[in-house]
Amino acid sequence: MELESKTIIITGASSGIGAAAARLFASEGANVVLGARRSEKLEALAETIHQTHGKAVFLAGDIKDQGYADALVDLATHAFGGLDGAFNNAGTVGEMRPAPDMSIDNWLDVISVNLTGAFLAAKAQIPAMKARGKGSIVFTSSFVGFGNGGMPGMGAYAASKAGLVGLTQSLASDHAIEGIRVNALLPGGTITPSGGEGNPAALEFIASLHPMKRMASPKEIAQAALFLLSDRSSFMTGSPMIVDGGISVRLT
Ligand code: NAP
Q: Which of the residues 138, 151, 182, 219 has the least number of beta carbons within 10 Å of its own beta carbon?
């Protein structure tokens, strides 16, 4: 039980990596607080967790709203008495186009969800962790924000994900003294709806970019998040942790 009695917020929990993390963290003893916009998906996931004797609550909303970030922390506090960790994982790919063809609306939306949304989440979470005297925050960045790996048309997405590494390092430096660790997780291509699931040509192309010649399962990425949220990573803060099947070294 790596997360016994720890209360952890997971954003982007309605799908892919976040849903896998919710199941895994709950199976490791965590009280999970599930966030995303699709309420019905969160409700179904919470029900699955309850059926396996796990503890889960959920609240639907948009990660771009500070009020929603605050409400998730309030829910964690009211349901479970405080907040120990957060997997700030919600994200969007947006339009995949070269810069001259990319709309400013897409640029602003991708930055708002992936970067501003993560900042708003941390802004709400840090005071609750400070009250606890410790905490662990994990942001889901991407290989695309670190070397790109050969993915075309990802200007806005890459900028948002590289920005998350800067945010991680700055928050880690500011809050280490308060016992709050902040790390970034940089997954490689992962088989999820955003990662091309249901599109065999996209999956084959993305897999081919990886030296391992395959993509990750959502659970493989969730396992790395579990490590960063558990006390096993107690001396890690400010780290961009790469879990990418070797795509960042492009050996082949
Ligand atoms: P996914 O299955 O499409 O999940 C994305 C999640 O983000 C969903 O739960 C979605 O929920 C939530 N979300 C999106 N916009 C939101 C908003 N405005 N407010 C609240 N929630 C929002 O994709 P995934 O691959 O698991 O993505 C998880 C994270 O991993 C993302 O940050 C992504 O950038 C990152 N990542 C993915 C890969 C990959 O290859 N799959 C690689 C590297 C990094 P709702 O639609 O219900 O709101």
A: 219
